[in-house]
Design goal:
Blueprint (H helix, E strand, L loop, with lengths): L2 E3 L4 E10 L4 E12 L2 E12 H12 L4 E4 L5 E6 L4 E9 L5 E9 L2 H12 L6
Antiparallel strand pairs: 1-2, 2-3, 3-4, 5-6, 6-7, 7-8
Length: 127
């Protein structure tokens, strides 16, 4: 795993491809939720700009709301330290206009925010 978060929800991001022309990373993202007798799993691949990745890490470091979005706005990971929430959403649309979506909201502690920050900040950057 390139980036793995296991608490409050399991999210993994594995780099599949790099683009140096538009500095960006193609991630294979998995979000697994198992609680309250409910389970859900989202698997997708998407592009995230390196600049967005850096802004996300910087916002967490400054204790501001941090948003990581892909280039097509299909995926969002939001860390809100003021309200104490981690929110995620994933939407996919096929060529016929059919849409599937999943989202979640999890309570964050100061410790879990620190773990999130370290998981993303320790990712080795090439840009």
């Amino acid at each position: 795993m390139d980036i793995e978060i296991s608490n409050p929800v399991k999210i993994t991001l594995d780099v599949v491809e790099l683009d140096e022309h538009v500095p960006s990373l193609k991630f294979s993202i998995t979000v697994r939720v198992k609680k309250f007798g409910y389970s859900s799993e989202v698997n997708t691949q998407l592009w995230i700009e390196c600049q967005s990745f850096d802004c996300f890490i910087d916002s967490i470091r400054r204790s501001e709301t941090a948003v990581l979005e892909d280039m097509n706005n299909f995926f969002e990971l939001r860390v809100d330290p003021v309200q104490g929430w981690l929110k995620w959403s994933c939407t996919k649309e096929d060529l016929e206009g059919n849409i599937a979506s999943a989202q979640g909201k999890e309570k964050l502690t100061d410790q879990s925010i620190g773990v999130l920050y370290e998981a993303f900040n320790s990712y080795p950057k090439w840009w």
